[in-house]
Amino acid sequence: MSAATAAPVTGPVPASPRTAAVADRLLRVLAWLSFLAETTIIGTGGAVRLTGSGLGCSEWPLCTPDSLVPTEELGIHGFIEFGNRTMTGVVGLLALAVLIVTLRRARARRDLAVLAWIVLGGVAAQAVVGGVTVWTGLNPFIVGFHYIASLLLVCTTAAYLVRMHEAPGPRERAVPAWFAILTHVTSLALAATILFGVLTTANGPHSGDANVIRTGFDATVLAHVHSWPGYILLALVVALVIAAAALRLRPLPWLAALLAVIAVQVVVGIVQARTDLPALLVGVHMVLAALSAAAFTVVVLRLKRPVSAPA
Question: Is 276 helix (H, G, I), strand (E, B) or coil?
Answer without folding.
Answer: coil
